[in-house]
């Protein structure tokens, strides 16, 4: 079959001709007593270590030392010259060339000739340099370790199909080094955050993924049923209310990095399961978390990029502190022709919102109408890191009221490129006020707001035992990784994103 006609993946209609050809090779090897999936080869070296140690070694040095190596890897390329061949082995992302001659160990060359690109093999041999000066293993022993039954995808077809890349991420990672680099950076980002918080006295905890009442965010949950308990449970939309219980218990600084689940739309910014960092600190305020967030993220950017400046999708972003701060009210006034009257008069706020072309349900609260206005006229304007502060009370049912203006709360969102990266506030720790806020939310729920908070009696009971003054924050890890890896879609930073079947 010609290369241009060869399907890069198995089709739903049936197996490709190459798949059948490889299956026949597998059968012939079995008939000849060749184990195509042995488990007794132990590589002693890695391609990365060999390249690091001998990548600059001269021909004479390699000859003098007589360096012997033993590595395993996937065949990514074959150049056949009849009685000898060059192959490219890929081992944990690094590559090393191997030279296979016909006079290697008895029977080994026959096995090699039945190998294809994509097979995993183990070789031993001595290092040398070719005439083109490429570091190469002169193979002395050759073992097939795992026969690949599908061909590797062709870059010209198989890996420009975005859907195929997401569905078969293992192939994407295998043949696209830049994709692998994104996820290595993701690991480094999470490690930095974990180390940063741990070094400041935070302890890492785990809280329930299955919850009897979904709380801690305005979002639609996934619902399931537990047969043994005989009750409905929900995949958590946030860990917040359980982390606050731990603050009540006496753990003064806690954090969790884990998955949340929201039964909502899918876009370049949203996946139904996503990774969140949430952390809480007793005897702190949202102002303290502004300082901590600046320190942590600016340090993280410098750690990953060597500078506080990065380029995201053609825009230069500067993460050196201090970052801009502006209230919701001032942001609306700055970027629209709204009058201050809309902040004190619900009807005027609704009229202004409708004048902007927003569809505002009659039952929507005053504060939520103001946030709709903010998201329309102001939010997209904040490209550089900016703290948006002082949100309306009725969109922040778990936040502490501002001491000066009790129509707003001590809360901030961190926006970058007009998108929310973090959300934090001084926590509401008054159990009477919290109960009243939940009751107000239940009224909104009854009026048709499916994302309004439910009453959580157990959480209120915990507050009744006394929670110290506390500040808490959530940071979307996926969106942060998008920024730091210059990725346009959240699917590019999640190993296995949700896809329609």
Write a concise synopsis of the structure shown.
This protein has 501 residues and is of the alpha+beta class.
Explain how this protein is built.
This protein is α+β, with helices and mostly antiparallel strands and 501 residues long. It has two domains: 17-149, OB fold (Dihydrolipoamide Acetyltransferase, E2P) (Beta Barrel), CATH 2.40.50.140; 176-335 and 378-492, Bira Bifunctional Protein, Domain 2 (BirA Bifunctional Protein, domain 2), CATH 3.30.930.10. The chain contains 15 helices and 18 strands. The strands form four sheets. An eight-stranded mixed sheet has the order 6-10-11-18-17-16-15-14, sandwiched between helices. It has a five-stranded mixed β-barrel with strand order 1-2-3-5-4. The chain has a three-stranded antiparallel sheet with strand order 7-9-8, with no helix packed on it. β12 and β13 (315-318) form a beta hairpin. α6 (169-175) crosses α7, α7 crosses α9 (286-305) and α11 (346-355) packs parallel to α12. It is elongated and about 90 Å long. The two termini are 30 Å apart.
Which helices and strands appear, and what pairs or packs with what?
Layout: H1 17-31, H2 47-54, H3 59-65, E1 68-80, E2 84-91, E3 94-101, H4 108-113, E4 120-129, E5 135-146, H5 162-167, H6 169-175, H7 177-199, E6 203-204, E7 210-211, E8 223-226, E9 231-235, H8 240-249, E10 253-261, E11 273-282, H9 286-305, E12 309-312, E13 315-318, E14 324-327, H10 328-334, H11 346-355, H12 366-377, E15 386-392, E16 408-416, E17 419-426, H13 431-446, H14 457-464, E18 470-476, H15 477-485
Parallel strand pairs: 3-5, 6-10, 14-15
Antiparallel strand pairs: 1-2, 1-4, 2-3, 4-5, 7-9, 8-9, 10-11, 11-18, 12-13, 15-16, 16-17, 17-18
Helix pairs in contact: 6-7, 7-9, 7-15, 10-12, 11-12, 13-14
């Amino acid at each position: 079959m010609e290369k241009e006609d060869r399907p890069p993946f198995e089709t739903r209609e049936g197996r490709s001709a190459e798949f059948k050809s490889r299956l026949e090779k597998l059968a012939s090897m079995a008939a000849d007593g060749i184990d195509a999936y042995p488990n007794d080869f132990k590589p002693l070296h890695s391609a990365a270590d060999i390249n690091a140690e001998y990548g600059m070694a001269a021909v004479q040095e390699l000859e003098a030392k007589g360096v012997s190596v033993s590595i395993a890897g996937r065949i990514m390329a074959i150049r056949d010259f009849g009685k000898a061949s060059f192959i490219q082995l890929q081992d944990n992302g690094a590559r090393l060339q191997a030279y296979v001659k016909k006079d290697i160990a008895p029977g080994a060359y026959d096995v090699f000739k039945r190998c294809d690109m994509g097979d995993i093999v183990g070789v031993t041999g001595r290092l040398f340099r070719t005439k083109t000066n490429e570091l190469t293993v002169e193979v002395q022993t050759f073992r097939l370790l795992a026969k690949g039954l599908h061909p590797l995808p062709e870059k010209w077809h198989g890996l420009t199909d975005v859907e195929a890349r997401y569905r078969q991420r293992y192939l994407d990672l295998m043949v696209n080094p830049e994709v692998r680099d994104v996820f290595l950076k993701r690991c480094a980002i999470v490690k930095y955050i974990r180390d940063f918080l741990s070094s400041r006295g935070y302890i890492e905890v785990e809280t329930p993924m299955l919850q009897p009442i979904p709380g801690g965010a305005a979002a639609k949950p996934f619902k399931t049923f537990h047969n043994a308990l005989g009750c409905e449970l929900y995949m958590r939309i946030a860990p917040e209310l359980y982390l606050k219980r731990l603050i009540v218990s006496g753990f003064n600084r806690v954090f969790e990095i884990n998955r949340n689940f929201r039964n909502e739309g899918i876009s370049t910014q949203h996946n139904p399961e996503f990774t969140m960092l949430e952390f809480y600190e007793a005897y702190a305020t949202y102002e303290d978390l502004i300082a901590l967030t600046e320190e942590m993220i600016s340090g993280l950017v410098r750690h990953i990029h060597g500078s506080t400046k990065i380029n995201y999708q053609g825009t230069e972003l500067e993460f050196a502190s201090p970052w801009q701060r502006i209230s919701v009210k001032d942001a609306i006034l700055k970027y629209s022709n709204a009058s201050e009257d809309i902040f004190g008069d619900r009807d005027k706020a609704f009229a202004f919102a409708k004048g902007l072309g927003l569809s505002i349900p009659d039952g929507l609260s005053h504060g939520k109408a103001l946030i709709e206005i903010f998201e329309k006229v102001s939010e997209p304007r904040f490209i550089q890191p900016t703290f948006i502060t002082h949100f309306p009370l009725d969109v922040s049912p778990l936040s502490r009221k501002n001491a000066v203006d009790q129509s707003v709360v001590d809360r901030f969102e961190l926006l970058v490129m007009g998108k929310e990266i973090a959300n934090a506030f001084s926590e509401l720790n008054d159990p009477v006020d919290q109960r009243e806020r939940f009751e107000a939310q239940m009224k909104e729920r009854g009026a048709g707001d499916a994302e309004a908070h439910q009453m959580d009696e157990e959480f209120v009971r915990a507050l009744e035992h006394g929670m110290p003054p506390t500040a808490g924050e959530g940071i979307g890890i996926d969106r942060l990784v998008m920024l730091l890896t210059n990725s346009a879609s959240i699917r590019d930073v999640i190993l296995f994103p949700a896809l329609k079947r």
